[in-house]
Amino acid sequence: MPRIIVVGAGIVGASVAYHAARAGAVVTLVDAGRPGAGVTADSFAWIGASGVRTGRAAALRLTATQEYHRLEAELPGLPVTWSGSLSWGTTDSAPEAGPGQEIVDAATAATLEPALRQPPRWAVWAPGDGCVDPVGVTERLVAGARAHGAQVHPDTPVTAVRRDAAGRVVGVETAAGPLSGTTVVLAAGVATAALAAPLGVRVPVDPSPATLSRLRAPAGLVRTVVNTPDFDLRQVAPDRLVAAADSPERTLAAVPSTFRGAANVELLSTRVRLRPMPADGEPIVGPVAEVPGLYVAVLHSAVTLAAAVGRLVARELVDGAVAPMLAGCRLDRF
């Protein structure tokens, strides 16, 4: 069985470690911090396969929700909520429905979100969509990996990928000493490019700022994942909302103007994280031909695709099978 070192314990790395360990590999998961404490912690964490039509990873994205349903069955208690999502824009004309979507009128929108002040004339309802607690899911994946024998090294920065005289990967150097393995998976988000560069490998991924705000709000104010031109919004606890939007001030003004009973919504915190964004916006997942034993897994949207990508990467590494859904995601396309 392969000895796999996964660098990065965000939700993607944790998923790869869990699925690979479950498939029988000898797995070591190593991270500079705590599992899920990086950009994963401040993800909006909307899980949706609906509406996907184009792109290199279109087929992969279409599997997102079913892969999370599978993961729920494997890891009971996984913190996933299947609320559906409701989206609308500024146009008066009816939008086009994609896979898994239906167009609803104002009356139906008001039924789905009773606190709306002025329901949109048309909205896109995706009943199969959901959301997750991204840190909770990551921790559950790490626990699942441990249960299948994985070794986990938090608070252990990786400083370099180690190779032998023939150029093949033999492990990593860390602040606590070397770790040995026959395969190294770089799932370190924005740090992936810096770890690959000394090997002569260019991974075209840049930091992309993402703002997440947490608000205090009345219980039950928002029932679905709401997507508008002003914000992405969802309820995460009886008196808590999270919002993804560029401007916290705009969000704080837009929530009361969108929902009745929201006059006293309070901004609790705002964090800006640098999510990894591949140059073309599509996942970069696969082996690196120039460096035998090196594998890259860096993507957006990481939370949405983590369940699917983890399973497929493990299949490629452990079984030696080529996953057709990852064919368009290889690094050599650049």
UniProtKB/TrEMBL annotation:
Name of the protein described by the UniProt record: D-amino-acid oxidase
Gene Ontology CC terms, in alphabetical order: cytoplasm
Gene3D superfamilies: D-Amino Acid Oxidase, subunit A, domain 2, FAD/NAD(P)-binding domain
MF-aspect GO terms: oxidoreductase activity
Matches recorded under Pfam families: DAO
Record-annotated FAD dependent oxidoreductase domain positions: 3-315
Organism: Phytohabitans flavus
SUPFAM superfamilies, per database record: FAD/NAD(P)-binding domain
Keyword RNA-binding: no
Record has Iron as a keyword: no
InterPro entries from the UniProt entry: FAD-dep_OxRdtase, FAD/NAD-bd_sf
UniProt-listed PANTHER family: GLYCINE OXIDASE (PTHR13847:SF289), SARCOSINE DEHYDROGENASE-RELATED (PTHR13847)
Keyword tags: Oxidoreductase
